[in-house]
Design a protein that fits this description.
Length: 427
């Protein structure tokens, strides 16, 4: 086979082909037969014109098709012989063809990198402790009792606003140039302090205010704020607190617990403890896994296919666009957001590709496999966490091959982490 391979980088190869003599008769014959089946020539039914006539009428196109078939076949043979695991589509360059005599061309292909990880046996990590506090249970209880709560005014004039209180207030924003935009005004607005509904610093600035008091809160809008004209802009909010309110919740009793699907208050408490603990344990594991990946990625530098990064950038943008549009962004605002945060999105995509390749490498190294038993176990865990019927959850994953495939991939990653954590010191 007439080709040479040159390395552009660790995962990009340039294959140079040169055929001093060229016989395309086999490819031309195949192209003529293929063209005959779809061509219409006057005097003949579709697909019934003689091969010689088809070749005469469509000669240049047929020769081009034959050349393309030849080029593709030669590339395929070379890639197979070299045992390249290619990514995406090849890029053809410098194609030189002398009709019926010779051809030379170059094909640039990306391949999955060969990963060799540095020794990680000395790595150590800390895992956050998982525990359920009284405050955690109180929050869950209040969520359940929300529909039975009553909003009441705090009548003591000495009581200042605190997190968990509801403020009824008037406000008006003043920009540095003195403008008072209509979209930064509100009267008798109801806001839960600590809910994070307003820009960072606003709710904290209101803490301690008493009924009837006024205050100017000076803030800087976030750099990624959806209204471009306000990004990094300084604004003074003139605030007047009209009322301080709080939600009064009834005490949970057995009768209410039964309304919520539990047998009693103790059943409510125990089951929610289990659920909260599982949630916190999952969050602690996810944080530990992220710490592990960041360390391994940092300590191991290797080239990765640009195609994989580009595909991941596209996936992140599609997911991010859905979230931004749900917040009121239009297409132009989304495009501007992507442009502004292009570097951050690309960096995130790069990390995700690298960590994915590393996890795949480790899964192969540890001979990690997934089975129906793993799938069923995960379904049972998911159903228990969500408080749903096992068969309902199983049907959801079983009827969509892509969703099930994603779940099996996640299971493989979890099993890989369990193996690699045995190699580290984790406190």
């Amino acid at each position: 086979m007439s080709y040479t391979v040159k390395s552009v980088n660790g995962c990009t190869k340039k294959i140079e082909f040169n055929f001093a003599t060229l016989d395309l008769s086999k490819e031309i014959k195949a192209a003529v037969v293929k063209k005959q089946t779809s061509t219409n020539i006057k005097g003949f039914r579709k697909g019934k014109a003689p091969l010689a006539m088809v070749e005469q009428v469509y000669g240049p196109q047929i020769e081009s098709d034959a050349l393309n078939t030849f080029v593709q076949s030669q590339l395929f043979e070379a890639v197979t012989k070299e045992k390249f695991k290619t990514v995406g589509h090849p890029a053809f360059e410098n194609v030189k063809y002398e009709t019926g005599k010779s051809v030379s061309f170059e094909a640039v292909v990306e391949i999955f990198p060969e990963i060799k990880l540095a020794d990680y046996s000395s790595y150590s990590f800390k895992k956050e402790k998982s525990e359920v506090t009284k405050d955690d249970l109180d929050k869950v209880t209040k969520n359940y009792l929300g529909s039975k709560s009553e909003m009441t005014e705090v009548t003591d004039p000495k009581v200042g606003l605190a997190k968990g209180h509801f403020a009824v207030f008037n406000f008006e924003g003043v920009r540095e140039n003195g403008e008072r935009p209509e979209n930064m005004k509100g009267s008798e607005y109801l806001l839960e302090i600590g809910s994070g509904q307003f820009i960072p610093g606003f709710e904290d600035g209101m803490i301690g205010l008493k009924k009837g008091e006024k205050k100017n809160i000076v803030l800087t809008f976030p750099a990624d704020y959806h209204a471009v004209e306000l990004q990094n802009g300084k604004v003074t909010f003139e605030v007047e607190l009209l009322e301080v309110k709080e939600k009064k919740f009834p005490e949970l009793n057995d009768e209410m617990a039964k309304e919520f699907g539990y047998e009693s208050v103790s059943d409510f408490t125990e089951k929610n403890k289990v659920s909260l603990l599982a949630q916190k344990e999952r969050q602690a594991s996810e944080k530990l896994h992220q710490d592990i990946l960041e360390k391994i990625v940092k300590e191991n530098k290797f080239d990765i296919p640009a195609t994989l990064v580009q595909n991941q950038v596209k996936y992140l943008q599609e997911d991010l666009a859905k979230n931004l549009k749900s917040q009121g962004f239009n297409e132009a605002m989304v495009a501007e957001y992507f442009e502004r945060w292009k570097s951050d999105i690309t960096t995130k995509a790069d990390f995700q590709v690298r960590s994915g390749l590393i996890l795949d490498h480790l899964a192969q190294q540890f001979n990690i496999e997934t089975s129906d038993a793993d799938f069923n176990k995960k379904i049972e865990e998911s159903a228990a966490t969500a408080g749903m019927d096992v068969e309902t959850v199983k049907k959801y994953y079983s009827t969509n091959s892509q969703i099930k495939s994603n779940l099996m991939y996640a299971i493989r990653e979890e099993k890989t982490f369990e193996e690699i954590k045995k190699k580290f010191k984790i406190s």
